[in-house]
Design a protein that fits this description.
The chain has 281 residues and is mostly helical. It has two domains: 105 residues, no CATH class; 154 residues, no CATH class. It contains 13 helices and no strands. The longest helix has 21 residues. The chain is elongated. The N terminus is likely disordered.
Length: 281
């Protein structure tokens, strides 16, 4: 007789189904809700940078040394008391016009990229870098520090950098679907393997729907399922042992079947079950 845990059904039935069952689609909906709520921030940051860039590029005084609004004069003012004062005076100020065009073009491109969601995270990082530079120069002497806008803009860019663009609402999303190597461009929902506890109508069945992420590696998922099905065939008459196998299947898939340790887990599981079966015979 093969060893099987006689109390497994009692343990499963004592656990609330609502705590064991979580749909991957629900996780996706929560993530979409969070990222969609960032639309106002995304629009504000993108529109502000687009406006600032176009204003700098179309303002004649910004590149005219004879005008008060010349960028070189502004840099000289910002350098006073700035922690990067040597860099501003030694590098930026002598090349003020070049840096002015870099800032103007950079702000314009960052604004457009943020609004349309193209290379969104790169744009957010560039915006973070630009505003942090402004914080160390243009608004460094603002007191209290929160009177300066650049530290606030930097925090906003950091938020957008960490969250990434909304899936399905950006060019990056289309690129990530077309080229899996560009998956880092967007934020993917955390996938959860659904495990439903046995009910009265299905006393010995554990449902393990595959997470949506499994579509990225169908071959490996197929191999894992075949391996587990092969193991289950040895225990056709032992429903509780099959229940344990289904839980282990869910655990292995939740690890990510593209991991190199999955074959070892499967091999070890098969050996363990065979050995337990042989000892209990």
């Amino acid at each position: 007789m093969r060893f099987v845990p006689l109390s497994l059904n009692q343990i499963l039935n004592s656990l609330p189904i609502c705590e064991l069952s979580m749909e991957a689609t629900g996780s996706k909906m929560r993530l979409n809700s969070i990222t969609s709520s960032l639309w106002p921030l995304r629009i504000f940051m993108g529109a502000t940078f687009l406006y600032a860039g176009l204003q700098h590029l179309t303002d004649p005084s910004y590149f005219d040394p004879s005008k008060p609004g010349y960028i070189g004069h502004l840099i000289s003012q910002y350098a006073m008391g700035s922690p990067i004062h040597d860099f501003l005076f030694g590098v930026v100020e002598p090349n003020a016009v070049t840096f002015g065009y870099v800032v103007g073009v950079g702000e314009t491109l960052i604004g457009i990229a943020t609004l349309v969601g193209f290379l969104f995270r790169i744009a957010a990082f560039a915006g973070l870098l630009l505003n942090f530079s402004f914080f160390l120069s243009a608004t460094w002497n603002a007191f209290p520090f929160y009177f300066g806008s650049d530290i606030v803009f930097a925090a906003c860019w950091l938020t957008l950098l960490l969250t990434g663009p909304q899936a399905g609402q950006s060019i990056d999303s289309a690129l990530a679907r077309r080229f899996h190597a560009l998956g880092w461009l967007i934020t993917r929902p955390t996938q959860v393997i659904a495990i439903a506890a046995p009910t009265d109508t299905q006393p010995n069945q554990v449902q393990v729907p595959l997470a949506r992420k499994a579509t990225l590696y169908p071959k490996q998922v197929l191999e894992v399922n075949r391996a587990f099905d092969r193991i289950k065939q040895q225990f056709v008459s032992h429903s509780e042992t099959q229940t344990i196998i289904e839980f282990v299947r869910a655990f292995v898939i939740s690890l990510g079947v593209d991991r190199t340790d999955t074959p070892r887990l499967l091999h070890g599981l098969e050996n363990l079950i065979n050995r337990s079966g042989g000892e209990g015979s």
